[in-house]
Amino acid sequence: MISGSRELWRVSSHPFALTRPSAGRPGALSWSVPPARARRRWRNLARRLELPHIELDALHWEPNWTEASTEVFRRRTEEALQADGWVADGNYSKVRDLVWGSADLLVWLDYALPVIMGRLVSRTLRRVITREVLWNGNQEEWRVAFFSRDSLWLWVLQSYRRRRKQYPVQFARAEYCHLEVLRLRSPRATRQWLSGMGRTE
């Protein structure tokens, strides 16, 4: 998600030409579902636009993979969204009304299932092998990542088709009618769109 009321951010001379923002609103939101290895790109985009980068995972997860209570998670999210412009990534139903309601642009990375699964496998293997430290000291483990009911792989397989049908319905709800939704269906399309961010006419 990207938001930026401090200055006009613009994409031009580009297949996905956009102009923002409306006065007094945060600027945009980037959202990936299911996971699509996009966090680094949103962080870089935030840096290019000189806006804070909000990772919803960092606000949601406590040490030892303990989920923050809904009350705490919503409070943290509300505080983060107070910034005068932001770029956020993640998609939690617990705070969707806060994030989508404050954004102007929602970027949906709607990749094919094989692409998502391939990226999820490579990301998980890298994190497990390198013992990468994630939010609040958490680390992924073989057993949980591959052989448990909490496996993200299992969640993606079970929810992929259902969520692809649900999201357009949610976009059409009255409280989100202000959102401009950009649906990117391949990594190449995402790279092309991001390459144009920040250019002026």
Q: Describe it for me?
A:
It is a single chain. With 201 residues, the chain is an alpha/beta fold. It has a single domain, classed as 3-Layer(aba) Sandwich (Rossmann fold), CATH 3.40.50. The chain has 8 helices and 10 strands. Helix 5 packs across helix 7.
Feature tags:
201 residues; alpha/beta; Rossmann fold; three-stranded mixed beta sheet; three-stranded parallel beta sheet; globular
Q: What is the general shape? A: globular
Please give the radius of gyration in angstroms: 17 Å
Structural class: alpha/beta
The major β-sheet equals: 3 strands, mixed
Strand content of the residues, in percent? 15-25%
Whole-number average pLDDT?
79
CATH class: Alpha Beta
Poorly predicted sequence stretches spanning 5 or more consecutive residues = 4-27
Total domains = 1
Number of strands: 10
Helix segment tally: 8
What is the helix/strand order?
EEEEHEHEEHEHEHHHEH
